[in-house]
Amino acid sequence: MPHGLGGPELIIILVLVMLVFGVGRLGSIGSSLGQGVREFKAGIAGRSEDEPKRLGP
């Protein structure tokens, strides 16, 4: 694991995140994070939202 984090440490971190944000908001945070990553990758690749996506190589 990176930085010496094991299973018990990750579980503690997950519980703390759930206490801070609540279970209901975790789904919206995850989807927003995923959308941000997709937009970042598209920006790096030079595509914009207006261009159609390519389906194959």
Task: Write out key terms for the chains shown.
single chain, 57 residues, mainly alpha, 2 helices, 0% strand
Task: Please write out the topology.
Elements: H1 7-21, H2 23-45
Description:
The protein is mainly α. Helices cover about 65% and strands about 0% of the residues. It is built from 2 helices and no strands. The longest helix has 23 residues. It is elongated and about 45 Å long. It starts with 6 loop residues before the first helix and ends in a 12-residue tail after the last helix.
| Residue share in helix | 55-70%
The biggest beta sheet, please? none
| H/E element order | HH
* Percentage of residues in DSSP E strands: under 5%
Separate helix tally: 2
Sequence stretches where pLDDT stays below 50 over 5 or more residues = none
Structural class: mainly alpha
The mean pLDDT is 79
- Number of DSSP strands? 0
| Overall geometry | elongated
Rg calculated over all Cα atoms: 17 Å
Distance between the termini: 34 Å
**Oligomeric status:** single chain
